[in-house]
Amino acid sequence: MILASTLDNRSSASSSNDKWIDQLSWIKFCLIGGLIAALYGDILRELALEWWSKPGASYGMLIPPIVIYIAYLRRATTLAIPAHPDLRGLGVVMIACLVFFIGRLAAGFFLCRISFVVLLAGLMWTFWGFARLRTLAFPFLLLVTMVPPPSLLYPSAAAPLQLFASGRAAALAQALGITVFRDGNIIHLANLSLGVVEACSGLQSLPALIVASLLLGYLQELTLAARILLFIFSVPLAIAVNVLRVTGTAVLADYRPEFAMGYYHSFSGWLVFSIGFGLLWITGKLFFRWTREKE
Q1: pLDDT for 254-269, tens place per residue?
Q2: Residue 125: per-residue pLDDT
Q3: Is the domain of 68 the same as that of 120?
Q4: Of 87, 114, 144, which residue sits at a domain end?
Q5: Which long-range contacts (C-beta less than 8 Å, at least 24 apart) are formed by 281-290?
Q6: How far is CA 253 from the centre of its chain?
């Protein structure tokens, strides 16, 4: 009887300790979540507004749900590895805080937003261990792409792309029998002039096609080399489909000027992006077949 009573006491004590540990874990989780919300609340809200208001960044709205879904699909692999808290993850947390601090001082939204992803990776390393973090390497990589590139890069990159797109489009239009005169980034037709502005430089579709290349490489289960090749291919593909869009606009505008503006102009952007995504998907399929044949 005394032994049974002792075992019952130990069992109840162990149960109460487990409950206390669970409560303590929830307290830590809520405390960390509250601190993250206090630090990054305004930054994440501004990021969401940029997704909503800028067409070139609208793809970012799809990234968090996709990341959560991929992490959910990999939950068995992740949770099969025992959690081993690792204090080395605090180094990544410190780096994230340093990047956040520099971004705040320099008013750099890009650095502050990137530090959020680095902070999440550091916290996961700290509480779950590096082995579990490795199983979610691709979702974290994909999460980085939700942050639009720094705005300072657009003017320097857009200008040469505008000239390239207008030059190639004018040459192609002339090859198709259209009377065209190009002056810088302005394409002069018989009835009107088309300006290849920054929004038509191809930079708006480039981030979306890069994200698509990462997703296709993951879904097709390509080798690392094939994924890198598909990623690299997405850059000239974005430029090429933009040249195709400008050329098509010039040809249609020479026939009917209203096709170069309003709804038709917006529709052509979606149409050409769909073509680019289709070409990227075909390329991914070819890479998949090529890697399987080599194996």
Answers
A1: 676 666 665 566 666 6
A2: 92
A3: yes
A4: 144
A5: 281/216, 283/230, 283/233, 284/213, 284/216, 284/217, 284/220, 284/222, 284/230, 285/220, 287/220, 287/222, 287/226, 287/229, 287/230, 288/220, 288/221, 288/222, 288/226, 290/226
A6: 34
